[in-house]
Inverse folding.
């Protein structure tokens, strides 16, 4: 068997993975880098990011201001040393992307343009129209093509990490096209596998966002940190969950209920500025409050009967008509295209129906500020990791920045580890392939008469999370969710694949993804049950206040044979002591 071996193996070809690969290849051309991706890299979820990436650029702004917005937005759960790294390295990353060819939108005088974004009290979000993720990923992808030391394994699905002698030494993966199980040895592995929003039924996340990397780490004994913090975005399209970017509100869009009222003025998010006045000196509106607060306001409006109802559930209106056709076409072309195509509404003439939708996981694989996990040789960066810069609530446009900054840092740390260890033994790779093949044969491919289907269990899991661990939770709903997930895990053992072929078996891939979703769902529900307070996106009816004495700490969920063990670790506070989150005076 051909031996596949790299100095650094990166799992994931999205923004974090490609940025990490380039970091290795540029600085260390003699090091070999492998990138495994279950989809062609340009199909990674990063491609669908619309609004932009945050980095300080203007003279009125400062690194401290960006850090403060991020930390207060996180409800003080972010690690402040991590946030300081993020804001300091962000401008350099943006300029570097420009040099690699990213077409950042410009002001009329030729300087880079920035737009307002939710929870950012000053304008610092760089954008490329409303297709920022597409341009960013394209720039990284084409840059990665310059380096011969980067070897890609496109459409390979990683099924397990190879852990021996107490360190991570590679991964096993199915080559989807042939169904062959393969092993790739590595001195260091970086997980850049993205989020897991598909654990909920209604999400902006693509089908591929199933938390695979989080589950791989969890199964190898690494903790999942702060999993109870799930971000709902306030403006998704009913039916599909497709995102209408916050940039629509950044450019002046307003949210209106069924009484025609800009209802956010009733939620302590500031005065309703007249966004129809283009000469108004203050551009920030209350519609640019943080996502957790806006999503919670939607639920209150719905309970008060002030939302519209439609075949795809309740919704409110996002009105951007006053921006005019020219601005919409120039700055929000994709918003117009998506609204026309998916709900048959042209936002130039009519308001867009929108509702809350699961968007992002603040939690993830526990890492330090160098992307190191507690398992030697295993690193993580991007949405699958929890560094943590997002704490209890991420500010829009910080994630694209995070994948660049921490993708690069994890690469440096992985390289330095790789320099200290030898290559993976050929015999270990052979054993790992055999063991993984047997595992799948004995579980997913056996004829066990169980009768459970992927779709059946997945739908039940998604409903359980939405009902038990949605925007608002309490002990009763969470306990029920935990119990149901235990049952669903038992049902998973009785899963039967209808398609038993090996070649391009998408049912097998969906089954493996479902296994990851179950682990992610379990960590979310149990971490949420244990956190008896309300903070950021985690709102408990039965514990409505933030409790800094009991819970100013990160949760850590460890996998066991039964329910996960929940532990805690301190939040790093450097210069900003916890305070109240105030947006009304912004
Ligand atoms: C619709 C939408 C709009 C967004 N807009 C913005 C925005 O404007 N600004 C912002 O800051 N953030 C935005 N976000 C969030 C941000 O885009 C993501 O958090 C970020 O792009 C994640 O990048 P990543 O590299 O960590 O993961 P991804 O881009 O999701 O890449 C994950 C990679 O892992 C691979 N992978 C996963 N599992 C396996 C496996 N088992 N085997 C092999 N490979 C695997 C996949 O193939 C993929 O290549 C948005 C998110 C969405 C969903």
């Amino acid at each position: 068997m051909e031996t596949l071996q790299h100095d650094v193996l990166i799992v994931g070809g999205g923004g974090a993975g490609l940025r990490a690969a380039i970091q290795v290849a540029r600085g260390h051309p003699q090091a070999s880098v492998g990138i495994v991706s279950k989809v062609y890299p340009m199909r990674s979820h990063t491609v669908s990011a619309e609004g932009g990436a945050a980095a300080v650029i203007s003279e009125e702004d400062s690194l401290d201001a960006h850090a403060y917005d991020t930390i207060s937005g996180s409800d003080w759960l972010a690690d402040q040393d991590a946030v300081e790294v993020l804001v300091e390295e962000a401008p350099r990353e943006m300029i570097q992307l420009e040099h690699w060819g990213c077409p950042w939108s410009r002001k009329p005088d030729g300087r880079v343009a920035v737009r307002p974004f939710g929870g950012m009290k000053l304008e610092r979000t760089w954008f490329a129209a409303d297709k920022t993720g597409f341009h960013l990923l394209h720039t990284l992808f084409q840059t990665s093509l310059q380096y011969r030391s980067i070897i890609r394994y496109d459409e390979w699905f990683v099924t397990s990490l190879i852990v021996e002698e107490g360190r991570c030494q590679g991964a096993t993966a199915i080559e989807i096209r042939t169904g062959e199980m393969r092993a790739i040895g590595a001195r260091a592995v970086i997980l850049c596998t993205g989020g897991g929003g598909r654990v909920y039924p209604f999400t902006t996340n693509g089908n591929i966002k199933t938390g695979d990397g989080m589950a791989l780490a969890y199964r190898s004994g690494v903790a999942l940190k702060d999993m109870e913090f799930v971000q709902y975005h306030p403006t998704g399209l009913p039916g599909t969950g497709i995102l209408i970017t916050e940039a629509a509100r950044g450019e002046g869009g307003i949210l209106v209920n069924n009484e025609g009222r800009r209802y956010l003025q009733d939620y302590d998010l500031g005065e309703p500025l007249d966004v129809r006045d283009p000469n108004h000196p203050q551009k920030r509106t209350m519609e640019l409050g943080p996502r957790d607060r806006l999503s919670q306001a939607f639920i209150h409006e719905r309970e008060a009967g002030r939302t519209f109802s439609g075949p795809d559930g309740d919704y409110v209106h996002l009105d951007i008509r006053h921006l005019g056709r020219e601005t919409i076409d120039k700055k929000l072309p994709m918003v117009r295209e998506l609204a026309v195509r998916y709900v048959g509404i042209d936002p130039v003439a009519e308001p867009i129906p929108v509702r809350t939708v699961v968007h992002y996981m603040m939690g993830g694989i526990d890492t330090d500020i160098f992307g190191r996990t507690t398992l030697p040789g295993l690193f993580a960066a991007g949405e699958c990791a929890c560094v943590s810069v997002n704490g209890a609530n991420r500010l829009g446009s910080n994630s694209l920045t995070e994948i660049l900054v921490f993708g690069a840092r994890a690469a440096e740390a992985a390289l330095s580890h790789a320099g200290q260890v030898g290559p993976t033994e050929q015999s270990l790779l052979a054993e790992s392939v055999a063991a993984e093949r047997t595992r799948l044969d004995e579980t997913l491919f056996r004829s066990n008469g169980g009768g459970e289907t992927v779709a059946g269990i997945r739908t039940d899991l998604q409903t359980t999370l939405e009902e038990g661990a949605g925007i608002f939770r309490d002990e009763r709903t969470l306990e029920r969710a935990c119990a149901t997930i235990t049952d669903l895990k038992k049902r998973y053992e009785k899963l039967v694949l209808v398609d038993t072929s090996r070649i391009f078996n998408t049912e097998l891939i969906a089954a493996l993804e479902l296994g990851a979703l179950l682990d992610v769902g379990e960590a979310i529900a149990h971490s949420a049950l244990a956190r008896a307070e309300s903070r950021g996106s985690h709102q408990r009816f039965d514990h409505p206040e933030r409790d800094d004495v009991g819970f100013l700490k990160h949760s850590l969920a460890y996998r066991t044979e039964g329910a996960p063990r929940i532990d805690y670790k301190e939040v790093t506070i450097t210069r900003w002591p916890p305070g109240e989150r105030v947006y009304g005076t912004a």
